[in-house]
Amino acid sequence: MAPLAARDTSSQSTHNPDASHDMMEDPSSSVRMSAEIPLLSGHLSVDKSLAVASGPGSWFRKRRKPHLDAIATQPSVFDDPETAKHHQPRPDWENIHRFDPTARWSWSEEYTIVRKIDYKIMAFTCLMFMVLELDRANLTQAVTDNFLDDLGFSFLCAELPSQLISKWLGPDRWIPTQMVLWSLIACSQFWLSGRGSFLLTRGLLGMMQGGFIADIVLYLSYFYTHAELSIRLGFFWTAGSVADIIASFLGAGLLRLRGVGGLAGWRWLFLIEGLITLSIGFLAFPLMPPGPCETAGWFRGAQGWFTEREEVIMTNRILREDPSKAGMHNREPITPKLLWQSITDYDLWPLYLLGLNFETPMTTPQQYLTLILRGFGFSTLTTNLLVVPAQVGHIITMLLFAYLAEVVGQLWLFGLLAQFWLLPLVAVIYTYDLNAMNRWHAWAILTVLLACPNIHAIQVGWNSRNSNSVRSRTVSAALYNMAVQTSGIIASNIYREDDRPRYIRGNRVLLILCCVNIVLYISTKAYYTMRNRHKEKRWRRMTDSQRARYLETSKEKGNKRLDFRFAS
Asked: Which of 252, 277, 314, 374 is at a distance of 20 to 30 A from 43, taking alpha carbons?
């Protein structure tokens, strides 16, 4: 959360004269002298009077590049003693011993720490997601090896949430446990014998894999600011797309084992990729620290990954942006009352509705791509390789949109643009018979369609921003992901057997959904704009003393607070 208005910051110079000088030397990034109570916001667009220059190496340079030795500490509610007392971390918060609102640091220090977090934390979470995607994508490779013929049916698979368990045990404990359990189940698919065993293993996989992404998002929020998290979630889903590419090549090789030991190639595919996941799962136990100030351990070293100075910087830069991140201990369970409060948080429902719909026009053709390409007459090997260009294009456009969304500061706009990308291409596959086309032309159309930028990473970060409390962020991440997974189930049922081979009815549904999504993005923007204006109107009617009394006595929590603004 970024403060929208700041008090007189001249007192900061008593702590560090350079800090005040650095903030004031550029008129575009100066701090306005104001007696207003600072506002908090999940919104990307902060008051231009604040010193919010991006640090070196930042993805979002809206200001001139600061000197490496310039003060990177940003204005926050902790700069004013009157407002600071209403945003103090809980005494049992795991990082409380590193909380210091007077701490100041340079861009050089912050840059070094963020890169260190990237190497130590982000890189391994991407690796974990890659092996998750391998275990999910191997079904796509298996169908090219007559897998469905061998089992005699098609199927749907849904993830079940495990976010509440993760919040209770801690992501550092639950995520590795999940990985070990689902990898064992994935390996057991080697012995599939029919419908019953298939349903059992895929159901158990869904239970064990469910909540993994939501767990990771919550875990990463302990280390990164909102803007940093958005682009890193883009790389996170890029890792999934890279895994899909690897799965295509790996699948092409492993399926050649068909006949070894008298067994089908898909059996070896499930076994070998499951063993890869198992090894990463065991490695996750020692490599995932509970939080920024808890990295010491037998495997990570007695002194941990970060110095005391680095822990102070990590703790305070996160809290200065979003004080709500100190609202719960990282191993504190969500009570039934808190769960109900989070589920009934109507201000997040528009994002859940977007999660339910936005991917479907792309997901349906994607799920059937290998079967469609086989129907065009391509071989198993060629089919697995022809999906790669779409995946590469998808990676490029996803990262580009994640970057531009932060630069422009309009999250909804890029969701809208993604739907306008899909709309004409879905119209083409609805209007024309791809089976009657030259198969390479048909492949090109599908490739461009599936190279559409997936704004899932943007919307996950959007959801996290607008939660404004650990309690809500924990539950909303799971609910949003459940909505996305439900969209996958819906997408799997749009192309029906009685609609083959052109899927006219199915493509008409996809076309309608594109139009519905366009309306949803515009409506979501309008809703959050309306909510922010309503809050602003009430806030500005208050005197300074009334605002101070509100902060001290109000029972409104999280994103319901009048000093919070929604991102849109």
From this structure: 314
User: pLDDT for 515-535, tens place per residue?
Assistant: 999 999 999 999 999 999 999
The arithmetic mean of pLDDT across residues 214-221, rounded, is 86
SS3 for 296-350 is CECCCECCCCCCHHHHHHHHHHHHHHCHHHHCCCCCCCCCHHHHHHHHCCHHHHH
Pair of tokens at residue 369: 């791509």
Say if residue 346 is exposed, middle or buried (CB neighbours under 10 Å; 0-12, 13-18, 19+).
exposed
pLDDT at position 61:
45
Distance CA 447, CA 313 (A): 45
Residue 101 placed within a domain: no
Does residue 47 have a pLDDT over 60? Answer: no
| Distance (Å, whole) CA 484 – CA 480 | 6
Q: Which of 17-21, 49-53, 56-60, 108-112 has the lowest mean pLDDT?
A: 49-53
Q: How far is C-alpha 391 from the chain's CA centre?
A: 18
Q: Which helix (H) or strand (E) holds 564?
A: strand 564-565
Establish if 100 belongs to a structural domain.
no
- Beta bridge mates, 200: none
498: DSSP letter: G
Strand segments, DSSP code E, in 44-149 are none
Model pTM score: 0.74
Residue 443 sits in a domain of what CATH number?
1.20.1250.20
- 3-class SS letters over 385-425: HHCHHHHHHHHHHHHHHHHHHHHHCCHHHHHHHHHHHHHHH
pLDDT of residue 27: 33
In a domain? residue 567:
no
